[in-house]
Request: fold
Amino acid sequence: MRNSFIFLLVFAVTAFPAWATLGGSVESVVTDQSKFHAKRAVVERRDYTIHEITADDGTLIREYVTPGGKVFGVSWTGPTIPDLTQLLGAYNTEFQTALHAKRGRRSSAAVHNPDLVVESIGHMRAFHGRAYLNSMLPSGVTEDVVQ
Amino acid sequence: MRLVGWRNWAAATATAVLLMTLAGCSAGSSSGSSGTGVTTTPPPPVNNVQPVIMDYGPTVNGQFVGFNNTLYTTVTICMPGTTTCQSIDHVLVDTGSTGLRIPASLVTLSLPFITDASKNSIGNCVQFADTTYQWGPIVKVDIQMAGEVASSVPIQIVGPANFAAVPALCSVGGTPAQTVADLGANGILGVGLFRQDCGSACAAGAPPAVYFSCPASGCVAASVPIASQLQNPVWMFPQDNNGLAIILPQVGAAGSVSLSGSMIFGIGTQSDNALGGAQAQGADFEGNFTTTYNGTPYPGSFIDSGSSGYFFLDSTTTGLPNCAANSDANGFYCPASPVSFMAMNSGPNPKGTGVPVSINVAFSIANALPLIDSTSVAFNNIGGPNPLMFDWGLPFFLGRTVFIGIEGQSSAAGTGPYWAY
Reply:
């Protein structure tokens, strides 16, 4: 009883299913999905797999996974920006550092480093973004698939 | 209707509600007595012209901290129902958001935080596309601009020290833009297409991470009644409340060090805010429409006075080289000579006729680096990349009259949300 009560609290505080991290393994998302009962759809493509996670507030997260099970790209669409520390993992630090070099303006965010690419666009009520790692794109797959 | 929302939510403002109610009663009885047997004439129209400016912005420790292409105005906030007020200059005029947000460091009024039924403070979160955010409690104030007054409006106090820490679902690994220096402004006045910052999505179950209930154990995302959410103050004015127009002069190719313009409240409500020849195009429930460039439609496009340039597409699609990443113009386009563009904005007819309205827009992009390094701050010709969409930023407003039709509010142009220009 006590354990299940604590579990419910954690669920309420998190309020959104956890997901795999850019550059990480896809296995964690399967574990998370079963734990949090999130809605998840898997779309098989020839050279990669798309895992779509839909949150109750309408946010759609897509993870793009190599045949070897690594997340080479992520995207998001929704009323707010999802937790980038979770979605981009350590790459969020690189993203934020690059953004700080662009201070003094108000606009969307686009960082194109040699390996890491992150784009965050939109406005209140309608945000969209994507991130990918050039070094992890499967053979024959371009960054255009990450939408 | 709004009062019911208050009672549910605002234990801390119950006194204010009572005071407002009493004030309303006395005002009602006095007008009733004056009306006895006397023919009343309609009151003269209120002043609906609010000055707006572009300049070097507010100062912090004697230094100007404004950004380029920022539109400012002065907003007066008051304790609800009283004449205890303060004026705040250099508040950013933002058609891309909704609601008034003031850094806590600037607020001198003693305003109680709004609480929910459990006596927990309500936290509000706003995120921007550059992954900056603002976090803070909600208070209620009367907002005065020109001769207009919006009464008891929920606003956000940004970043007070005596409030709960920002939840991870708000900060999301981004960067706070909560100080005057970080923001380049003394707050944000969101006068976009919508009545509320979030609306019905935040009043229902499974709300997005915009409103939070904040017990001592930590803040959790929460549903908040629509009337308790941050409001576009314009639609809460007693008159001239169906929208507004922003009128700014044009600038030359070298930009300008300052300029003055007007924000006029109401659309077709007085002699100074007629639509004239402006065409009206609707926007969708997220505030977006389609911009077509070179035969390709880009849905998800929008107009935003809070964006500091024309941000559109990418270097490959536009043929515009990006500015060097290590330069002052990082994030802008830097063509060797100015390049002219033509694009078409399309949206539903706000009159509901089903025939979409399309409006051609011409603009030019110059090398942003010498402009940004110059002493000018207002430019009609700087832009940068924004993948797969158009963000018609502040330059779009220069040399134009742009009408903003608020959702659910009607004028001769139709029913909002719509733009007319």
